[in-house]
Write a structure and sequence with these properties.
One of its GO terms (molecular function) is serine-type endopeptidase activity. This protein is of the alpha+beta class. It is built from 3 helices and 10 strands. It has a single domain, classed as Umud Fragment, subunit A (Ribbon), CATH 2.10.109.10.
Length: 166
């Protein structure tokens, strides 16, 4: 009887470890559901919107300008942030705020991206903390799931004029 109970317990433990590994790989490499908070990506993503983030793009270096990404915060590694990619390594970006009279520009260093929120007046982004290492990217937001009346692919940046092609 004890042998039977131990056998069932070990089988249960084995299945738990197996399914745990499968779940970890799915969330790490395929993607997952993310609840966004804060005003920095308005009007594209509102506070409490639910989105799907896919993680394959970051592994295959397929992140492009205009993509919205989930990134480990450069200021607080325990939290994630949601921002739009404005520049990739080697790109010339506008580093000043929209309200600044004189515009300043810089180049994104190798292995980094330049991130900005769509709500430029209420976003802490690369204009504040500088270029972000590519390795901090966790995934690319691909689809808005909730609210249902806004279900679908994400729209283009309202700040498309900030993308420089120099």
């Amino acid at each position: 009887m004890l042998r039977n109970a131990l056998g069932k317990a070990f089988r249960f433990l084995g299945y738990t470890v197996q399914y745990g590994c499968i779940a970890h790989c799915a969330f790490e490499y395929l993607g997952g559901i993310v609840v966004c908070s804060g005003p920095s990506m308005e009007p594209t993503i509102q506070n409490s919107d639910i989105v799907f983030s896919e993680n394959l793009s970051r592994h295959f270096y397929c992140i492009r300008k205009g993509d919205i990404v989930i990134v480990k915060s450069p200021n607080d590694p325990k939290s994630n942030i949601c921002k739009r990619v404005i520049g990739l390594e080697g790109d010339k970006v506008c580093t000043s705020n929209p309200s600044d009279f004189l515009k300043s520009h810089s180049y994104v260093p190798k292995g980094h991206v330049w991130l900005e929120g769509d709500n430029l007046r209420n976003s802490t982004d690369s204009r504040y903390y500088g270029p972000v290492p590519y390795g901090l990217i966790r995934g690319r937001i691909w689809l808005k799931i909730w609210p249902l009346n806004d279900f679908g692919f994400l729209r283009a940046s309202p700040n498309g004029h900030r993308f420089l092609d120099d």
